[in-house]
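This part of the workshop introduces the protein records we will be handling. To make this concrete, we reproduce a full record directly below:
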Amino acid sequence: MRRLHELLDCWVAADPGRWAIHDFDGARYDFAAAGAAVDEAQGHLTGAGVRPGDRVMLVGENSLVLAAFLLACSRLDAWAIPVNARMSRLEIDRIRDHAEPRAMVFTTGSSPAALVHAEERGARPAQMRSGGLHLVPHLPCMPEPCAESPEEQVAALIYTTGTTGEPKGVMLTHGNFLFMADGSMKLRGMTVRDTVLCLIPMTHIFGLASAFLAGLCAGALLRFLPRFEAGAVFQALADGVSVMPAVPQIYALLMQHAETEGWTSAPAPGLKYISAGGAPLDREWKRKVEAFFGITLHNGYGMTEASPGICVTRIGQERDDIACGPPMEGVEVRLIPPPGRQDLSDGVGEILCRGPNVMKGYYKNPEATANTVDAEGWLHTGDLGRFTEDGALTIVGRSKELIVRSGFNVYPPEVEAALTQHPGVAISAVIGRLQQDGNEEILAFIQRMPGGNLDEEGLRDHLKDLVAPYKRPTRFIIADALPAAATGKILKHKLLEVFADELAVTVGERASPTG
């Protein structure tokens, strides 16, 4: 196979009448109908002026319509830019301005948030048999060169924010995705008899490659849920979902729901494989999840720039620790001394990986690309880890300040920049703190302007239109001064110590980390 849409096309040809999609609204589509949906999406894109090498921004949530447009972009050799509709207007505008798409598509039939964005931009309504959408067509766009090779032709731009707070478009090729889809399918033992829960957003690399495309590669039935709701997830499990990739926070929320229902085990008769990615695990918490579901919780490590898989635990090689398993087949992983060191202290080093999973680069940013992927093709992750005696990778920490919350990457400089736009904020510092379920809470430390009147409610209201819900802090500590060096640089490593008493105070229920 050379393009992503061929993952579907082969099943349309081989078994058109078998169920392919169980959509968010309960509607079911066989492979023939799913292929027809891609035909419709392709027609909309062609009518919007999309050409090979153009970028297409897809603002939405999990649904057949979103999946159809992702595959339609592949047919046209256009670059898909999947964007979570729950992002703020400012965040979406930044991505649009950087990518310069030819068209914007909003999956308004499945996403109220997408409808808000569509109406703000004057998008025109359109319709497919599987649902409604809105379009902004014929935007100014200079097409990128196309390549026949799947290893060279970009399939999607997945945007991260980067340490500067500015968006960075990770260029992932058809070769990257096809390698990952095939590898994820084999690691999970997925077949045509499986039902895969597509709960992680397909606008996120984990949901796109490791759930949607891997399930499509296997010819499995894909069950789409646009966003997390515990009752809907348990209904899907009761209906026969057999494979559930998720993030640690989802399992924690499912178990909380089960406790309120009085369940001691999961009502999931067909479930055979569960996995957690996107955040570190806690050993005791992992055991609780396994006891509740009655099967092994598999673990993995990856990042967007690795499309995303690097290491993953194996079926039949269950682990009692929280290691992420050995490297995926075809992927090399090695450790080098962290910045400022000459050797691997206690076996800990920066994680490097190389293989068909590594991105082509950052769009319009050759300097950042060169700083991340070296001349020999090694991707420098910025994460720290060590190998166990049997060759499994254990994540020790991050050399960067990246916060992982509910499986989503949160970069402190972006949140800090938003906070300091408030007139009452002099300086802000944002850090993450690991919780028992493996998720991270976001702590914001605020130095108020002299004589300023500042409160938490006002700060939360200020951030509503600036950053997505999952990026908003769970705790705000407001002070007259933050610990700083002589240069004025905030000493982030001192914040938890200096404000230990304030952080220990119970402040009641906070905003949901899933947003």
